[in-house]
Amino acid sequence: MREEALEENVGRRLEIRYARPMATLPLTVSSPVRARGRRILRIEVNADRFERLAADFGLFNPDFLESVERAEADARAGRVREISSLRELQRPRRR
Q1: Is 86 contained in some domain?
Q2: Is residue 89 a part of any domain in this protein?
Q3: Parent domain of 13
Q4: Dist. CA 5–CA 20, nearest whole Å
Q5: Most CB atoms closer than 10 Å: which of 30, 55, 75, 86?
């Protein structure tokens, strides 16, 4: 079997099967410390494992990278709004 994902078109639906398990990402968490009145928590990850996990999630995909660039351009142009819940993004149902 190949190492990368195997893709098959099933009708109009794209089915992706992984020939290997997804990367794991062990974390090292240090206990919180106080610095200048703030609590600081240090989390360490292995950079190589993080990149492998990011690749598994498709974060290096050109389409994803282009969408990030468009989002950054929207943010610079002020076309963003703050939300307190993802429910605010739901459109009202039409009756």
Answers
A1: no
A2: no
A3: 6-79
A4: 8
A5: 55
The pTM for the full model equals 0.48
Overall domain count for the chain: 1
Report if residue 1 sits inside a domain.
no
Q: How far apart are CA 7 and CA 55, in angstroms?
A: 16
Residue 40 has pLDDT above 90, yes or no: no
Per-position DSSP letters for the chain, written without gaps between them: --SS-EEEEETTEEEEE-SSPPPP--EEEPPPEEETTEEE--EEE-HHHHHHHHHHTTTT-HHHHHHHHHHHHHHHHT-----S-GGGGSPPPP-
pLDDT (tens digit per residue) in 54-66: 888 889 999 999 9
Residues in the chain: 95
Query: Are 66 and 48 in contact, with CB atoms under 8 Å apart?
Result: no
